[in-house]
Design a protein that fits this description.
The protein is of the alpha+beta class. It has one domain (about 20-349). The chain contains 13 helices and eight strands. It has helices spanning about 10-15, 25, 50-65, 65-75, 110-125, 165, 175-200, 220-225, 270-275, 275-280, 305-315, 320-325, 330-349; strands at about 130-135, 155-160, 205-210, 230, 240, 245-255, 290-295, 295-300. The strands form three sheets. The chain has a four-stranded antiparallel sheet, with helices on both faces. It has a two-stranded antiparallel ribbon with strand order 4-5. Helix 3 (about 50-65) crosses helix 4. The longest helix has 26 residues, at about 175-200.
Amino acid sequence: MPRRTSTWQAPVEALAAMPEVSGNTVNGLDETERRPASPFFWHEQQYHEFGDMQKYTLNIMYGLEDGGEICEAFRINENFDPALGDVAQNRQFVHRGPEPTEVASEKITQSAEQWTQQVKEFALSHHADVVGIARMSRNWVYEGFSINDYEKNVIVIGVGHDYDEIKEAPSLPGNNRGIVEVGKQYTRAATAAAELNNFIRAQGYSTNCYPGPTAQAVMMIPAAVEAGLGELGKHGTLINRELGASFRLSAVTTNMPLEFDQPDVFGADDFCTRCQVCRDACPPDAIFDDKQWVRDEKKWYVNFDKCIPYFAEARGCAICIAVCPWSRPGIADNLVVKMAKRRKKLADS
């Protein structure tokens, strides 16, 4: 992806589909008091004001002549109507794997250590590339949503992209490789979560499954950070020490006793303070140079109002994932070592 030489301008149709309220306001940009995150663009339309933009985006992604390839990758159900573009009425937006089974009547008792080992082994042998576990926090629940009392622990799954495919992003007419790869990995992440969900239920423990890409009750990125799957990058996407920024998430919550992982601080955040690759490549110039206050947390943030129109036109975009230095094969290991040396040098000075 070449360096951006000019800022992309959104077409009139895209701007007309945006609501009067700023997506940055909805997300809590510049707010210095803590509050729950509000439902946003990828929630079902009854929860937010971005319904017209959601329809506009889905029409572009799935409504063009070559949209069938994208529909297949995301496993859109055969009744999907691009003109309607309503996720609430197209719940098979992504293949979710096997349907949930009943919770076994007899609960198998083991230690948290034993269950943790078995859960991770099962996940890694059933589509997951990385897996982490954290204690569930109500701070990760969207405003207006609730979770069940049994959702005490959260297991977060990550599945990596094929770099040769995702590097083709963005997906424009005639080249769907980037968005098709995104669809395939969302499908794999959903299948991984669904199969793990049923494995845990078979042991007699309650669960809830969060497959993505449509948003539900739980914010996956902060859960993934706490579960040790990576650090938040300048592009607003998680960076994993093995997969870089090039992966997708799903999750399962449960009351099964489990041991918790710790956040993995390996230098990605520090690296992002100096790196400008994703910012320079972003066509709508949506990536901030510095961290921003968002609901009483200073963190990396992407300008929603600039990002989402291009996201629609580019049929899923993913440029920032594709160009991130951490995502290139064989690079992450070297960067981890480099950042470890830098942190040691700072600590010793």
